[in-house]
Amino acid sequence: MEAYNSAKPLIMHIDLNSCFATVEQQARVRLRGRPVAVVNRRTDQTMIVACSYEAKAMGVKLGMKLREARLLCPGLIGVESDPAKYRYVYHKLLDIMNDYSAHVTMKSIDEGVIDFTQAPKSIVEQGLESIGNEIKQRLRDEIGCAMRCNVGIATNRFLAKTAAGLHKPDGLDIITHENLRDIYSTLQLTDLTGIAERNEQRLNAVGIMTPLQFLDTSADILHSMVFGSINGEQWHQRLRGWEVDDVTTETKRVGRQYVLDGFNLSFDEILQRLHHLCESVGSRMRYQGLSARGIYVGTRTFGMTGDKRRNYWHASYVAQTPFFSNETIYALARRLFMDAPPNIRDINVHCYLLQREEPSQISLFADQIVRERAVTNAVDEINERYGEHTLHAADTLPTSNLVKTKIPFGSTRYL
Amino acid sequence: MINDEEFLDERIKVIATFGGGLNPCTPLKFRRASGREVTITEIGLRHPVAQGRRMVHVFDVTDGQADYRIELDTERLVWHLTRESSDGGI
User: Fold this and answer.
1) For chain A, does the N or the C end have fewer beta carbons within 10 angstroms?
2) What are the boundaries of each domain within chain B?
């Protein structure tokens, strides 16, 4: 059996506790100590995207509708999400983390990893536990006294994240090869990052019911009988504290999704929202210096069956030449959307097959592309100067206050 | 309706200190259009919001009775009261 990684733990995972709810409690003093739910819309039919520890203690969970949560917790205060605030806290956290190492990776808007393996000797000599406590204090000093974070320290990213989840809120834990088995003995399989219901079923199917049994399973069995791929070997190493997750992912698609603000909208009204999304997608894509060849449009519908797959419709198109302008994105999306079924619940647009903006071959339509590029650049410059969505298509005028940018879960590309 | 927050766009007069340190701008007191004075007992959070290239600094503050959001437009150097909430939430 491969040995555990006995190196000095030099990976630190930092996770802001109940980030959005905590930031709201920090900003609004009178929310502190009270159950708070952050929602994306000012209606009690909306889904909770974050809740405070006081709300969690009353049984409120993410994904519940605010109205249902209030049955469990009558004093629950709904707060509309405020992405600008969370972006600010994200940048403050990033600034603090950058003071300790040049190797900082933000995993999402509320968590990041500091890799100390190449950090200066003086920093490492301070000790990661001491640095973890210092970061906690700096968060309180530089953002506010209500801010708390969990810190996990280990030899790889996976164990550092596991450590950060052990004692919430405001914990600091270190996992080493010495306490690894003790830690695993206190966890369930689904407590491990990356093991959700489906992977748990795969593991259960071969008699692996606990993290310790998972740890003691050979790489061969994990490869051949559980995951059927290199994932098996990776899990074998990951669980032992060896780094397999230090990979950078490139942007493969740029998109947006929108749950319709009413379920009796006319087709034209839905097209207005689609147009708004396309403008937003185009702007994000160009912000990264990209153009695309593929476009995808999807919708979820209200179906008579409970089968989610049957209530999903999508269509896609791959163009021969790359496109970048809002007009082209909308024209392509609109054409696809004409085949969408009725009873639409939400719309989803994304561009894929991304490439750097400069076309690699001279097109027959070069003049047209140059003109399109000039107009698009002019629009982008005006929007950059006067604010997002200052200049936009006339038919998206009624949607400006509806299709707001919400919290970008999972990605830090636009923060 | 999820709470009792009021959205406002009220020009206000503010007494603030400007100095160094982590919080270089500290609003202390503001006077509303009605003449009522609000003494700020705590600043919850200050965060900048870019409106195009114009920067607005948003302060979430309280006087102990209600939470307020006041905004400093750094281009025009004017303050506005934009939100008020007496239950703490919105």
Assistant:
1) N
2) 6-85
Q: How far apart are CA A319 and CA A182, in angstroms?
A: 55
Q: Looking at this protein, which amino acid is placed at residue A114?
A: I
Report pLDDT for A305.
Answer: 55
B47/chain A closest Cα distance in angstroms? 6
| CATH code assigned to A253-399 | 3.30.1490.100
Which contiguous run of DSSP H or E holds residue A180?
A: helix A180-185
As a whole-number percent, the residues of chain A with pLDDT over 90 amount to 68
Closest C-alpha to A93, from A158, A138, A38, A157: A138
Q: Tell me the C-alpha distance between A162 and A43, whole Å.
A: 35
- pLDDT at residue number A408: 58
Closest approach of chain B CAs to the CA of A36, in angstroms? 8
Q: Return d(Cα A208, Cα A219) in angstroms, integer.
A: 13
ipTM of this complex? 0.91
C-alpha distance from A78 to closest chain B C-alpha (Å): 6
Flag whether residue A134 sits within 8 Å of chain B, measured between CB atoms: no
Q: For the domain bounded by A1-178, which CATH number is listed? A: 3.30.70.270
Question: Closest partner residue to B90 among A80, A85, A390, by Cβ?
Answer: A80
Domain boundaries along the sequence of chain A: 1-178, 187-248, 253-399
- Across the interface, whether the CB atoms of B44 and A80 are under 8 A apart is answered no
Residue A390 contacts B, CB cutoff 8 Å: yes
Q: How far apart are CA A48 and CA A62, in angstroms?
A: 5
What is the CATH superfamily name and number for domain A187-248? 5' to 3' exonuclease, C-terminal subdomain (1.10.150.20)
Any B CB within 8 A of A55 CB: no
Q: How many CB atoms lie within 10 A of CB A122?
A: 7
Active site residues of A: 111
List the one residue out of A50, A30, A29 whose CA is nearest residue A39.
A50
Q: Which of residues 75-104 of A touch B (CB under 8 A)?
A: 77-80, 84-85, 88-89
The answer to whether B45 contacts A84, with C-beta atoms less than 8 Å apart, is no
Nearest CA in chain A to B68: A28
Among the partner-chain residues B2, B44, B87, the one whose CB lies closest to the CB of A27 is B44
Residue-wise pLDDT tens digits, A101-128: 999 999 888 899 999 998 888 888 889 9
On whether the CB atoms of residues B25 and B16 are closer than 8 A, the answer is yes
3-state secondary structure of A117: coil
Indicate the pTM of the whole model.
0.82
